[in-house]
Write a structure and sequence with these properties.
Elements (H helix, E strand, L loop, with lengths): L4 H5 L1 H10 L6 H38 L5 H35 L20 E6 L12 H7 L5 H8 L9 H19 L4 E3 L4 E3 H7 L18 E3 L3 H7 L4 E4 L5 E10 L18 E11 L4 H18 L4 E5 L11 E9 L4 E10 L3 H6 L1 E4 L6 E3 L1 E9 H12 L6 E2 L13 E2 L4
Parallel strand pairs: 2-6, 5-11
Antiparallel strand pairs: 1-8, 3-4, 6-7, 7-13, 8-9, 9-10, 10-13, 11-12, 14-15
């Protein structure tokens, strides 16, 4: 969450930010709720001050032997009334605080000054491109047509198993998906210095709230029905954030760099009618996620580093891409600043998102209470967190099919992936 000081010190900045981020939070209602909770706090503090003063006075009367006097009895009656008022006020405080917190947790992260203001991705800024799209047989075929023809995908049986918006890799397709995961993990651990983590695929509500998705994105997640209130993870980012929830880290060990492969589960609420076929908007997909916890002064360089780490995957796989700086309206809820990597998709004759690399400032750390000390005994400060796909596996699979398809329908395997496929150079339909 944001620093609450913004409510009192910069309310106009808050209003502008909510507008620029396309947030549904009502700034006026939020400021009124904050004023109400602070007013109640002031009244409660006044009652506690009176209660403490009365207790001190009664203590002096006991020492003087006058506690049983009419004045002592009146003082005891006043203190009892104060207790009752304070108890009622504390209940009111809890209700007002809970109502305020529910709204405050829905307020998005304040964007960095360099983030362009815009309602949609039309205002995104292209930072750079890499590679030249290769010539492919025309008309360009969609990845699901290529994959289905080669027996790599079986969407019909996936639908039979689980319903719409699921897909299934089969045969060599399943092997290629596994190879992509292994290749990405090896690259990030051996060349980029990340420590591999294999986290649980279920997560608690408390951890999700700390990472950011709850309560705002409740409708886009799957949850269990038991009393534990566990959710299927929407991304490994939430698990890696929760690893250090309520901890104070040794600043000399920062940055901490993690990478994890997990499936991701999303309802894709609000995307009905979009990308109904293929591997783009499905309820379950595989992803390799990079994550860093670092000092605030190191976070800008870490953001650039993580972007380059994600780019390295695409370069090794010889896939043309571009890097864009997302606008305020296009960036994710917890993002302070986001670089999107978009791979070339011949069937679209355009770009397709394949990774988002975000620096979140202290937004997640404040929600999750993750702090560090620069030196032993020093003041505890909030860390900065960063996350990025390295990469989305299904989308990478789709990009490979569309960019490396040949005139005979076969697909050439890029050199970097061949060692993970026993030297296989090409995927062709079995005779």
């Amino acid at each position: 969450m944001n620093d609450p000081k913004i409510l009192r010190d910069d309310p106009e900045i808050l209003r502008k930010m909510l507008h620029d981020r396309n947030s549904k939070v009502d700034a006026r209602a939020l400021l009124a709720a904050d004023a109400a909770r602070r007013a109640l706090q002031t009244k409660a503090d006044e009652l506690r001050t009176k209660k403490n003063a009365g207790a001190e006075q009664f203590g002096r009367m006991k020492k003087a032997g006058t506690a049983d006097s009419p004045e002592g009895a009146a003082l005891m009656a006043d203190m009892k009334a104060l207790d009752q008022s304070l108890s009622a006020m504390e209940k009111d405080q809890q209700a007002v605080e809970a109502a305020f917190l529910d709204v405050w947790l829905r307020v998005p992260n304040v964007p960095h000054d360099s983030v362009p203001v815009g309602a949609t991705d039309a205002e995104d800024i292209e930072l750079r491109t890499w590679g030249t799209p290769r010539a492919v047989p025309q008309p360009a075929r969609a990845h699901w047509d290529i994959g289905n023809a080669l027996g790599l995908l079986d969407p019909e049986r996936a639908t039979k198993i689980a319903g719409a918006r699921f897909n299934m890799f089969t045969g060599i397709g399943a092997r290629v998906e596994r190879a992509l995961i292994q290749f990405m993990l090896d690259l990030h651990t051996t060349r980029h210095g990340y420590t591999e983590i294999a986290p649980p695929f279920l997560i608690s509500a408390e951890s999700l709230q700390g990472a950011g998705p709850l309560p705002l994105l409740e409708d886009d997640m799957y949850r269990t029905q038991d009393e534990d209130r566990l959710y299927l993870i929407p991304t490994a980012e939430v698990s890696l954030t929760a690893m250090h929830r309520d901890e104070i880290l040794d600043g000399s060990r920062l940055p901490l760099k993690y990478v994890a492969y997990t499936p991701s589960f999303r309802r894709e609420a609000g995307s009905y009618g979009r990308d109904l076929k293929g591997l783009i908007r499905v309820h379950q997909f595989d992803k390799v996620e990079m994550y860093q916890l670092t000092r605030p002064d190191l976070a800008p360089a870490a953001h650039e580093e993580m972007t380059r780490n994600a780019e390295a995957v695409l370069q090794a796989l010889e896939l043309p891409y571009r890097v864009v700086l997302l606008s305020t309206g296009a960036a994710a809820f917890q993002s302070h600043k986001t670089h999107d990597l978009e791979v070339w998709a011949p069937s679209r004759n355009g770009w397709m998102e394949i990774s988002s690399v975000s620096t979140c400032g202290d937004f997640q750390a404040r929600r999750s209470q993750i702090r560090f000390r620069r030196e032993k005994g020093g003041k505890a400060e909030l860390v900065h967190t960063l996350n990025g796909s390295g990469l989305a596996v299904g989308r990478t699979f789709a990009a490979l099919l569309e960019n490396f398809v040949n005139a005979d329908g076969s697909v050439t395997i890029p050199d970097a992936l061949r060692p993970y496929l026993g030297g296989m150079e090409k995927i062709a339909k079995a005779v």
